[in-house]
Design a protein that fits this description.
Blueprint: E1 11-18, H1 29-45, E2 48-55, E3 59-66, H2 70-90, E4 102-105, H3 109-125, H4 140-143, H5 156-160, H6 166-174
Antiparallel strand pairs: 1-3, 1-4, 2-3
Length: about 180
């Protein structure tokens, strides 16, 4: 039976991408820097807004607000550009990502906040750090003003849900 088509309508999506089985999507800081640069370039030139992201070892998460039809095209471009970069660096060939990406439409504000917290806390749950703001490969610390944020990330929609009160957003994410 064929797989159902991925959603392509405009809206906010939680996107997750994994490495091939038993592989690392990001072997080191250089891989993460390359991906972050590709994500910044993609966000600048494509029809989406990056609300937040987090890069781990075997996968990454994005929350993006996309125009109609933009998600499949933009994800293909992002993953392809990253794969080219990694393969050139490692003198490898072939796939770098482990197949189809997961894209879940965000249904409402409560869902958006739950997804934002999940993405921010992912490195904590994976045992990579003790607090979400300590993970350097996430947009969370910049979104709550603890670091200079990634210029391509616009988390204003999340902050608006807390009437712009960063402390309330931090309590929501960190107070779990």
């Amino acid at each position: 039976m064929p797989r159902p088509p991925r959603p392509t309508a405009a809206g906010i999506y939680h996107v997750a991408v994994t490495a091939p089985s038993a592989g690392k999507l990001f072997a080191d800081a250089e891989d993460r820097l390359r991906f972050t640069a590709e994500l910044a370039r993609t966000t600048l030139f494509e029809h989406w807004t990056c609300i937040c992201f987090c890069l781990l070892t075997t996968h990454y998460h994005l929350v993006v607000d996309v125009d109609d039809g933009a998600l499949p095209r933009t994800m293909k471009k992002l993953n392809w550009q990253y794969a080219r970069s990694v393969n050139a660096r490692r003198e490898g060939r072939g796939h770098v990502v482990g197949g189809r990406y997961l894209s879940v439409p965000v249904s409402d504000t409560d869902h958006l906040l739950t997804v934002f917290r999940y993405v921010a806390r992912n490195p904590v749950e994976a045992g990579l750090c003790r607090q979400p703001q300590a993970w350097p490969w996430s947009s969370y610390a910049g979104s709550v003003g603890l670091e200079r944020g990634f210029t391509f990330v616009d988390s204003a929609i999340v902050l608006e849900s807390f009437a712009g009160r960063v402390e309330s957003l931090r309590d929501f994410v960190e107070g779990v």
